[in-house]
Each structure stands twice: as structure tokens, then as C-alpha cells.
Amino acid sequence: MTFTVLTAEFMHESNTFSRLPTALEMFRADTLLMGDDAVAVRGNANTELAGFLDVGRARGWSVIHAVSAHATPGGRVTRAAYDHIAGAILTAARDNRDRLDGIALGLHGSMVPDFTDDGEGWLLARLREIVGPALPVAVTLDLHAMVSKDMVRDAQILVSYRTYPHVDMREIGAKAAELLHRTMAGEIAPRTIRAHAPMLDEVNGGRTDIPETQALYDRAAEAETGGVLAVSVNAGFTGADVDCVGPTVLAVHDTNDPAAEPQAREVARELAARMWDGRTSARNVFLSVDEAVVQALSWRGDRPLVIADYADNPGAGAYGDATALLHGLLDAGVTGAVVAPMVDTGAAATLHRQHEGETVTLDLGGRNDPDFGGGPLRLTGRVLRLSDGGYTGDGPIQGGLPHSFGRTAVLEVGGVRVLVVSEPMQMVDLQQLRAFGIEPETARVLVLKSMQHFRAAFQPIAGQVIVCDAGGLATPQASRRPYVRAPRPLWPLDRDFDFTASADA
Questions:
Q1: CA-wise closest residue to 348 among 402, 309, 403, 386
Q2: Regarding beta strands 102-107 and 137-141, do their DSSP bridges make them parallel or antiparallel, or are they unpaired?
Q3: Is it the case that residue 296 has pLDDT exceeding 70?
Q4: Which are the contacts of 111, defined by CB distance < 8 A and separation ≥ 6?
């Protein structure tokens, strides 16, 4: 039997503390592709869509793909942008309602539009109004999802990434699609159980490159036996001030198996309790700017010293224009360094009015909120490279996918080369430097605006990796962000309270 399946991707991680709303042009600058165009670009890459299609081809599905949309994390998604993209999904569901056997969605889980705190829950509720309560819906989620009760109510199957850096998008897409197929075929009748911990996030940020956190994911995989079909551990996202903030555990179970629900409930409770019990055990060591600069000055390794500018990560909705670390490097006279990216549309435009090789004086960075990471720097430097910002990734995360920084320039100031870009994006791929004439292996020091994803491509070439909190919007010092809507008590904003883990349907 051939099943007809509606697929779509709609992903955004929304930092509600950002002053910059995420409008439709931000999706267009990253990924906004309709139907067959999306399939052509993303259908054979490391994407959720590719995983859906892998199963669809093997199982003989007829696939209707609505849209693939992704924007770099930023402020709340505007109503116009949300309605445009969600509308494409809802219209496809409405137009094909009578012949659909299932729906597969690649969502993030931490999208916050400007009219609701739960972008994914709102979309799923509208889909249910169209297709009814019984049609099987499978959803993939980012490991940093904040999963609401509404999402669990309206999607039978929810499966999250298991890697951070995220390198398993296609694999997880295929896993969700296979469960969807078994549901459509009548082999299973899944539901998802959710457990939530009152924390801003899992304190190691879901890192899967350290044993303490990997143990959670190993236990989740171990629990997937019999009628327990999938277990996901979601680290949550500290940049969202919403009522469903915090880490969750999801356990998909087969309701046809009477033993599966209590097993799913127990593993969800167990893993939520383990996250809570480990709340004081963060493994990142955050250096100050001065400490990071001292290491940069003294570095003598054969391979680059990589400094993660953790708090100014555009991938967590930070502005990407914090200047504190760059300022420190320049003041100390560090040479052989690369800083990437500095997100400053105005500076990029100024540099594009010059010619390669010319010297220019300009203000760089610090334009959005000088309280987070420092204000603009008045600099004089030489323009090394001008570009339209386009590149195609070749690493574990972005391999085969085209992206663009928008108008881009490489500015050399003293002994530091700065990649100045127009569109925010964190560093995850070596081509983000190579495409602009910077060979990362030959740099003495690489300063990368990223928290963790950079490790997939850059750690293999690094002599050492250190992490710096230079005070950007994504600082691990959560008390610097004014949480209002998040339910209290909430770790680490509150510390003197008890919690007993439980799971709800």
C-alpha cells in the first residue's frame, strides 16, 4: 500500500531577549524553499527532509513537501514571517486533507513567535483542526527543544537529535519517518510521554562530547526496547523567557503494548531526575577575556588555539557583534589571529565601498546592545578580501548545503584578521573561512563565535580549545537576563527548593 505523507521543515531557535525580531527576510537569507526546490537542495544532505525521503523512497510513499524554512537564531519570529511559513504547511494540509495518511515535520522546539510562547505547539494545534485527532503526526526536534504539553498532545511521535554538535539530522529524520510508517501501517499506536525539570537548561547544554552528558543519551538509547519506541533528552534553551522553558525527556511508546507505558513513564522520570541531580556539574570552564588573551599571547602550538566566543554565539540568538574579546586581543598585540564572524551590516557596507588592499578607518561591532559584550571599536585596517558571502559547506553539519553571510569582507587590523559579515551565522564549517581566503589550519589563534557546534569541524584541526565568556547576550550568567514569564522556582535563578521528577502523558 502506498501512503501519502505531507512533509515540511520549519525551524527557529528564538532568543526572546534579543532586540532584533526575526522577520521573513531572515529566513530568506538562510533557507526558505518551497516544494520541489527544497527537495532539490536539501533532499540529499544532512537534513531532516533527507531522512524523511530516505524512508519514503524505501517504503514507497507519495511525498508532498510544503516548505523548508530555517533562520539563524534571533529574536521572536514576526507574525508575518510565521504566518507565511506556517501558512504554507497549513494550506498543503488543507488542500490534501482527504488523501493524507500521515505528516512528518522537522521542527526546532524552541521557536517563539511574537504572538505566542509556543510556536510549534500553535502550529500542531492548527494542523489538528484541519486533519482531525487521529492522523499520525511525527515531529523531529532539535536537542535544545523546549517541549510543551501542547506539542505532546498534538503529535503522536516526537524524536530529538542525540548529538551536540548536531550531526545526526538525517538519521533522526529517518527514525521519525520509520515510526510514522509503522503507525500508518497499523503496526504500532504511539503516544509520547513528557517529563520536565525546573531548570533553565541541562547544565552541560546537552554536550554529547563529554561522558557526564553522553551517559544520559546512552541510557535513552538503552531504554528503547519492546514497546518503548524512542527516548529523547532535550537540554532546553536558556535564551527564551517562556512558560515551557527547561529540559525535558520524551518517551514514545506503543499503546498496544500494556507494559510499554509504565516503562516509558519510568525512564522519562529517571532521566529528568538525573538531569536535576547533575545541576551543579557544568563541565565548561569559562575564561574571562583577560585569561583568554593571556593564553593567546603565549600559544606556541603547531596547530591553532581555538577560542570559543561562547556568549556571543549567533546560534543562540546573540548578536554576533560583541567586541570585548577582539578589543582584548588588539590591546595585547596578539598576532596571527582570526576573529569570525563579526556581524555588522553597516561596517560590511562601508568596507564594500573600498577596494581590496586599501586602508580604511571605521567603527566595528557593538551596535545592538553595548551592555552585552562591549560597544563599537574605532579601528584602522587593510581590506584583504571582498565577497558576496556565499559558500557551500563541506563539514559534518553543513556539508553540501549552500549558505551566505551576505556582503562580507576580511579586514586586517594589526595582527588580527576579522571576518566582517552582514548576516548572522555561527561558525560550524571550515568553508566559512576558506571561501574568503583564510586557511584556518595556518592561523595561530582562531576566535569563533559559537558555543559547541564549531567543534565538529574545528576541533580536529585545533591544538587546544578554550571557552571564553566575554559578556555577550548568550552569557552563561543567566542572572544578567531578566526572566519574567518563566515559571519559578527555576534553577539556577533559584537554588533553595526541592524537585521530584514525574512524567505526564
A1: 386
A2: parallel
A3: yes
A4: 10, 11, 12, 13, 14, 77, 119, 120
Which candidate, 430, 468, 462, places its Cα nearest to that of 449? 468
The three cell numbers locating residue 371: 551592555
pLDDT of residue 57: 97
pLDDT digit string (tens) for 232-263?
A: 999 999 999 999 999 999 999 999 999 999 99
Q: Give the per-residue pLDDT at 284.
A: 86
How many structural domains is the chain composed of? 2
- For 55-75, what is the mean pLDDT? 98
420 beta partners: 342, 409
C-alpha cell at 344: 555588522
Strand 102-107 and strand 4-11: pairing?
A: parallel
Q: Is the pLDDT of residue 505 over 70?
A: no
In a domain, 503, yes or no: no
Q: Would you state the pLDDT for residue 278?
A: 94
CA distance to 88, 306, 337, per residue, from 297 (Å):
52, 13, 10
Give the list of residues 6+ apart from residue 26 with CB closer than 8 angstroms, or none. 71, 72, 74, 81
Residue 8: strand pairing partners: 105
Spatial separation of the C-alpha atoms in residues 202 and 199, rounded to whole Å: 7
In a domain, 270, yes or no: yes
| Residue 290 near residue 502 (C-beta atoms within 8 A) | no
> Which pLDDT tens digit goes with each residue over 405-426?
999 999 999 999 999 999 999 9
If DSSP states are collapsed to H, E and C, what string results for 134-199? Answer: CCCEEEEECCCCCCCHHHHHHCCEEEECCCCCCCCHHHHHHHHHHHHHHHHCCCCCEEEEEEECCE
Q: How far apart are CA 368 and CA 316, in angstroms?
A: 15
Burial class (CB in 10 A: 0-12, 13-18, 19+), 275: buried
Domain edge (last residue) among 277, 294, 315:
277
pLDDT digits over 84-117, tens only? Answer: 999 999 999 999 999 999 999 999 999 999 999 9
Q: What does DSSP assign to residue 443?
A: -
Q: What is the CATH number of the domain that holds 18?
A: 3.40.50.2300
- Helices and strands, number each (H, E), in the chain: 14, 21
Beta bridge partners of 418: 339, 411
Residues 221 and 129 in one domain: yes
Cβ-proximal residues to 107 (8 Å cutoff; 6+ apart), any chain: 9, 10, 11, 120, 123, 139, 140, 141, 145
Integer Cα distance of 109 and 234 in angstroms: 9
Whether the CB-CB separation of 315 and 164 falls below 8 Å is answered with no
pLDDT score at 282: 81
Integer angstrom CA distances of residue 60 from 52, 54, 137, 158, 424: 12, 10, 18, 22, 39
Predicted confidence at residue 283, as pLDDT, reads: 80
What domain range is 54 assigned to? Answer: 4-277
